[in-house]
Amino acid sequence: MSEEFDVIVIGAGPAGENVIARAARGGLTAAIVEESLVGGECSYFACIPSKALLRPVELAGEAARAPGLSPGPIDAAAVLARRDEVVSHLDDTRAAGALKTVPATLYRGRGRIAGPKQVEVALTDGGTALIRARHAVVLATGSTPIVPPIPGLAEAEPWTSHEVTAVRTVPRRFAVLGGGAVACEMAQALHGLGATETTMILRGGSPLRRMEPFAGRLVADAFTASGIGMRTNTQVTKVERPVRNGEVTIHLTDGPPVVADELLVATGRVAATADLGVEAAGLVPGEPVEVDDSMRATGVEGGWLYAVSDVSGRNLLTHMGKYQARLCGDVLVARAKGQPEDLPGMRDTATRYGAPQVVFTDPQIGTVGLTEEEARSAGYHVRAVEYDLGAVSGAYLREPGYQGRAKAVVDEARQVLLGVTFAGPGVAELVHSATIAVTAEVPLERLWHAVPSFPTVSEVWLRLLETYGL
């Protein structure tokens, strides 16, 4: 006979952990299934290790620009050792142990939907287990990197975010295919840690094309100044790697090929639903699971299936997945107990405002909400204002010649912010204030009375509003 729980979660990353924590807090019994490390991709092969690799590079850059300081070379071995420490040496004993205090039952193995409210687990140590949910099954399996169907690319065994954040030896020649956050962060991290020939390969003219144009330009200028090569407006036609672990040759539509010791492919991710048995729920394997604002899968008879984080396709950011997971867990408790389940905190409203995001390069990029182009395309009557961050006293004091920019996109009809972007050293800590202003739809006339401290970079808020005309 199968074991039975109120809620079963497939995927023990940050989102899955938050679902069961909220469900258990509400008195529901929970099981969680994980075939890899408890804690998920973010904890071991994405957000956490990448920031550990980037932090020394950022500090060295800031120190080099500060009068009176002269940083020496970065000790790559020490940085990699610190990276190993923050990912617990890829040992999830502590994370798995924490599940017992939730409490939740951990099944180690590959989970698949076997029917309505049923999950079959191919156990890591052999055999199978069939478990059943009284109320809901939640998918929290995240996403997997996309490797484009370019001749020779898969055979060349390129790195993805998984391999690059777990790097043991920094390659001398490093090529990066892509221009998004992962591509930019890892290009700068490995270049700062000792790669002497780093080349980014971009389909467009600059990185970070989904953000405000000045963000990509500032990052590209900083990369070029540091010696990172940029092959722009080009595409890969073929990849060759005759000898395993040997050099890789990347042929492009124009110009000479790029020759490297390792190639990182960072061209996007896809929802990890290919082998979850979602067809048993009437869904399409390999596609995101469409959900409503309570994170319940749409079109599934009986309403027993939910999906949070990357697998829902709503937003591929860890903090958004955790947000969705918290509200999902609360919804599950309310629905199981027949309590009100339509409270404001039980619906995903943050997605429609635009999720906050930080690109942890030097300079950093922080953004929330819509870009000017996105806002106009959505039909808003928009006015956008920009300000030179280097002209703010707090920024000037950080370092001479501070290079940065800020932009606010205003809905003229309602006099509220639709989006804000900051670009410059250390701007990550400005993003949450912007997130509050955007998601709370704070009227500009009220925002004017939120006085920034002097002399801080936050004074840019005053300058943006003055530029607007307040």
Automatic annotation (TrEMBL):
The keyword Flavoprotein applies. Residues 5-316 form the FAD/NAD(P)-binding domain. Pfam families: Pyr_redox_2 (PF07992), Pyr_redox_dim (PF02852). InterPro entries: FAD/NAD-bd_sf (IPR036188), FAD/NAD-binding_dom (IPR023753), FAD/NAD-linked_Rdtase_dimer_sf (IPR016156), Pyr_nuc-diS_OxRdtase (IPR001100), Pyr_nucl-diS_OxRdtase_dimer (IPR004099). Its cofactor is FAD. Keywords: FAD, Flavoprotein. Residues 356-461 form the Pyridine nucleotide-disulphide oxidoreductase dimerisation domain. It comes from the Bacteria. Belongs to the class-I pyridine nucleotide-disulfide oxidoreductase family. This is NAD(P)/FAD-dependent oxidoreductase. It comes from Nonomuraea monospora.
